[in-house]
Amino acid sequence: GRSFICKMAASSRSQVLSLYRLLIKESKKFPSYNYRTYALRRVRDSFKENGAMEDPKAIEELLNKGRESLAVIRRQVSIGHLYSAQKIVVEDRGGQKAF
Q1: Mean pLDDT of each 10-residue bin along the chain, 99 residues long
Q2: How far apart (Å, rounded) are the C-alpha atoms in residues 29 and 93?
Q3: Do residues 36 and 85 lie in contact, with contact meaning Cβ atoms separated by under 8 Å?
Q4: What string of H, E and C letters represents the secondary structure of the chain?
Q5: pTM for the complete prediction?
């Protein structure tokens, strides 16, 4: 009984961490500073907001939503790279990126 639940919790924890890392990594690829900072903030806030979630069904639903969001971010990053955007003042720090 309990060991199965513990294994399931450990499994979902590793899935959550893996998804979080992927979402952060992909969000950092946005060429637009505004989209990039927005995506990073949303990812961090969403994971903080749901950090105490313990219901396995709810966790699975959130994981699925996260995977869908990851697909959207990847698509939008690809589209963003098709159009060159000028860097804004916040990004240009003597040739160094702010992020």
Answers
A1: 58 91 97 94 95 89 96 95 79 58
A2: 18
A3: no
A4: CHHHHHHHHHHHHHHHHHHHHHHHHHHCCCCCHHHHHHHHHHHHHHHHHCCCCCCHHHHHHHHHHHHHHHHHHHHHHHHHHHCCCCCCCCCCECCECCC
A5: 0.79
